[in-house]
Specification:
Largest sheet: 7 strands, parallel
Strand content: 5-15%
Structural class: alpha/beta
Distance between the termini: 19 Å
Shape: globular
Bound molecules: flavin mononucleotide
EC number: 1.3.1.-
Oligomer: single chain
Radius of gyration: 20 Å
CATH architecture of the largest domain: Alpha-Beta Barrel
Pfam families: Dus (PF01207)
Number of domains: 2
Protein name: tRNA-dihydrouridine synthase
GO molecular function: flavin adenine dinucleotide binding; RNA binding; tRNA dihydrouridine synthase activity
Enzyme class: oxidoreductase
Length: 333
């Protein structure tokens, strides 16, 4: 499961594991934590990485920084204090405020600097001996011309895995995937490769498997939020023929929703914040239901918990879960 800020916090990860994920999701990634100079984490970050909140899932903590020494103390603290032995570097975030500080996908602008960063990290004996380091990357900033150089840097280090989202920074989450660049990665990576991007349906998955038979590990974000039961297709021995029980999936989706809702309302003060966060989920889930326009509108309009809960109950009674061939998310990020 991909890291998604505002969506895949520990409340969602745990609810997903209980309902759909058990035995099917091998790794859950936390949304990025961003170490600052004070060598401490924010309260929100601590809550998300807390061992007690991650005891039922294999969780990898994602870190966003362009300072090797900050990555190193963070990784050590995550190991020693929180018991994590696998850490992921964010080299993909396209947000303007992040990229302007040369973080996230901004790290890809200067391949020499990226090389120095990784060199310093892997020079550290403690990291080398105790911590598995992986990278989640895009394929460039404005274009993919320098992707071969970026790959050469990654190839110089023993990464636990290299997760590639084959888009450039300026694509954000839009535009077609750069499949030629991903092919280059498949043909040239010395590290284990993971494909991330635009697997929203069974059809998308089958097409990717056909195009890249060498790849056996996939990271999904929006597709799992929209259609959590899609995981049963992806993990089936015969994903093409697997017959889904959409009624059972819909029931489990309600359970997943209720678990997330209960956990979020328990930690978030007041109605507004928790409801806003729940509505983020609906921006994806609404795509896999028929007969529900009016009911979705009522959910999105609700401001108070009582209204929200009532609207969700009506929705799940009325709406029909369907398996789509294609999904186009209209929300522009
Ligand atoms: C709302 C939102 C939040 C995201 N937060 C993160 C994040 O914290 N760290 C990260 O590496 N990627 C983040 N991503 C990117 C996803 O992990 C993933 O790479 C992207 O959605 C493409 O995969 P998908 O097509 O399966 O959704 C985010 C994406 C979205 C839409």
């Amino acid at each position: 499961m991909a890291p998604m800020e505002g969506l895949t916090d520990f409340t969602y990860r745990n609810a997903y594991e209980k309902t759909f994920g058990k035995g099917r999701i091998t790794k859950y990634f936390t949304p990025f934590i961003s170490p600052n100079k004070s060598e401490n984490f924010l309260a929100r970050e601590i809550r998300d990485i807390d061992r007690g909140h991650n005891k039922d899932t294999y969780t990898v903590v994602q870190v966003m920084t362009n300072e090797a020494k900050d990555f190193i103390w963070t990784a050590k603290m995550l190991y020693e204090k929180y018991g994590y032995s696998e850490i992921n570097l964010n080299a993909g975030c396209p947000s303007g405020t992040v990229v302007s500080k040369d973080k996230g996908s901004g790290m890809l602008r200067d391949t020499e600097k990226l090389d120095r960063f990784l060199d310093e990290v892997f020079e550290d004996a403690f990291i080398r001996e105790n911590i598995k380091v992986s990278v989640k990357t895009r394929i460039g900033v404005e274009d993919d011309d320098s992707f071969p150089q970026i790959m050469e840097v990654y190839n110089s280090y023993p990464l636990e895995e290299l997760i590639v989202h084959p888009r450039v920074r300026t694509d954000y989450y839009r535009n077609e995937l750069h499949l030629d660049a991903f092919r280059y990665a498949v043909d040239n990576s010395r590290n284990k490769l993971v494909l991330n991007g635009d697997i929203f349906t069974r059809k998308n998955f089958l097409e990717m498997k056909e195009m890249f038979p060498e790849v056996d590990t996939f990271m999904l974000g929006r597709g799992l939020i929209a259609d959590p039961g899609l995981i049963n297709v992806l993990t089936d021995d015969n994903p093409q023929a697997m017959v889904r029980d959409l009624n059972a999936d819909k029931k489990l989706m309600k359970e997943l929703h209720d678990l997330v809702y209960a956990a979020r309302t328990a930690i978030m003060p007041g109605d507004t914040h928790a409801i806003h966060r729940m509505k983020e989920m609906w921006c994806y889930m609404e795509y896999v239901f028929d007969d529900c326009k009016k009911e979705i509108k009522a959910i999105k309009k609700s401001q108070r918990m009582a209204d929200y809960k009532a609207a969700v109950d009506v929705f799940f009674n009325k709406a029909m879960l369907v398996e789509r061939k294609n999904i186009i998310f209209s929300k522009k990020f």
